[in-house]
Write a structure and sequence with these properties.
119 residues, mainly beta, seven-stranded mixed beta sheet, four-stranded antiparallel beta sheet
């Protein structure tokens, strides 16, 4: 079964950085759009960033613009989310999800990785 597995979360101080990884199993990884979402305590799920299959286009939610960078390495079936200048309000469980350009819904989600920003 094809899977997405997130890693790289942890505890970081405000102003610090983390790099999250979304590793995919299965075939045809480069045909999938990969998006990152997050859900903080008591909050709704929020779009963070997305990247097309070739990596040629990226998109960011308002909270991520200027601080987060999404990238991918299709040879490694991996998408990265570099998060800089972290704030306490970035505390959340971060999930990656995939869909093809033809799909309106995601067909696979990871289990999530916890990011906590606190002094």
């Amino acid at each position: 079964q094809e899977q997405l597995v997130e890693s790289g979360g942890g505890l970081v101080q405000p102003g610090g950085s983390l790099r999250l990884t979304c590793a995919a199993s299965g075939r045809d990884f480069s045909t999938y759009i990969i998006d990152w979402f997050r859900q903080g305590p008591g909050k709704e799920r929020e779009f963070v960033a997305g990247i097309t299959g070739t990596g040629g286009r990226t998109d960011y939610g308002e909270s991520a613009k200027g601080r987060f960078t999404i990238s991918r390495d299709n040879a490694k079936n991996t998408v990265y989310l570099q998060m800089d200048s972290l704030k306490p309000e970035d505390t959340a469980v971060y999930y990656c999800a995939r869909r093809t350009i033809k799909q309106s819904e995601y067909d696979s989600w990871g289990q999530g990785t916890q990011v906590t920003v606190s002094s």
